[in-house]
Specification:
Layout: E1 5-11, H1 16-30, E2 36-42, H2 47-55, E3 59-62, H3 70-84, E4 91-95, E5 100-102, E6 117-119, H4 141-148, E7 158-162, H5 163-176, H6 185-197, E8 200-202, E9 218-221, E10 224-227, E11 235-237, E12 248-249, E13 259-260, H7 262-285
Parallel strand pairs: 1-2, 1-4, 2-3, 6-8
Antiparallel strand pairs: 4-7, 5-11, 9-10, 12-13
Length: about 290
């Protein structure tokens, strides 16, 4: 029986131009999509964008859940899609699409470490303690912080799952969640569960390369991102939470894009490193 893979993202009208012109174009030009379906969870796409996506053979799933942040709700929507789908999917890749481009083929990752979750652990890691508060979940926060203490953050912007495991993990996340409006909650919960259960199969940093937290030197030539040794970086993620904190100006796929904000990158790395140092000092005192 042929394998069926799913690549899925969530989007609204705010990011639809980047989704189509950069994320989808980079995906289609660089990735072998045999036996692979592309799905966009629709959180308010324009009619024009939906027509363009369908013309490019992209499936659309209209989001049912509105009470919460898209970052948190998207996992529930993908779980619901998989439970309601007649497709015989074996593996699912869920990734960001408003600030991420794919520069080379990543299809082999579907066949790598198939029984675990595949994702990147950041080299320069922000403190996860700051992302969760009392009242966000039913979990014991002391236990959560103990499990996560000293562990690099697993970035949830590009993750591959066996479908059955994805459904189980998201159902567990939903069962303990009280506040779907908390920014970063999905990151904390996935990090906590994956570390507690030992379910992570770590990917090379290049499969979710964030200039601020990758901890690797890189350079840009003809708008493409390369390691210092000249190898092309497979997946580049211009993460930042807000436009002011994103490390790359005019980010995109194709000529004429991508200018690094080197001072911002340096300052953010320094900030994260200082926070990590101070946290370790506090933990020693305790």
């Amino acid at each position: 029986m042929s394998r069926k893979y799913l690549i899925v993202t969530a989007a609204n009208e705010k990011i639809e131009k980047f989704l189509i012109s950069h994320w989808l174009t980079s995906l289609r030009e660089n990735v072998a999509l045999n036996n692979t379906e592309i799905l966009v969870v629709d959180y308010g796409l324009s009619l024009e964008a939906k027509d363009l996506l369908r013309a490019k053979e992209v499936s659309i799933w209209l989001a049912r859940r509105k009470d919460g942040l898209i970052n948190n709700l998207r996992f529930l929507e993908v779980r619901d899609f998989l439970l309601n789908s007649s497709g015989n999917y074996e593996q699912v890749l869920i990734c960001d699409s408003g600030d991420l481009i794919i520069q080379s083929d990543i299809s082999h990752l579907f066949n790598f470490c198939q029984d675990k979750v595949r994702a990147v652990r950041e080299r320069v890691s922000p403190n996860m303690d700051l992302l969760i508060k009392p009242g966000d979940t039913t979990l014991n926060l002391t236990e959560v912080k103990t499990i996560l203490r000293g562990k690099p953050l697993i970035n949830v912007g590009f993750m591959l799952f066996p479908v059955h495991l994805f459904i189980d993990l998201v159902t567990e996340m939903e069962s303990v969640t009280l506040n779907l409006y908390r920014w970063g909650l999905e990151t904390v919960l996935l990090n906590y569960i994956l570390h507690r259960k030992g379910l992570l199969c770590e990917l090379d940093i290049g499969y979710n390369f964030i200039p601020v937290t990758a901890g690797e030197r890189y350079w840009i030539r003809d708008s493409k991102f390369f390691y210092r040794d000249g190898k092309l970086i497979p997946v580049v993620h211009n993460a930042g939470g807000s436009k002011l904190l994103r490390p790359i100006i005019n980010f995109g796929y194709g000529k004429g894009y991508n200018k690094p904000r080197r001072l911002l990158i340096f300052l953010l790395r320094l900030f994260y490193q200082i926070l990590s140092f101070l946290r370790k000092k506090v933990e020693k005192v305790k």
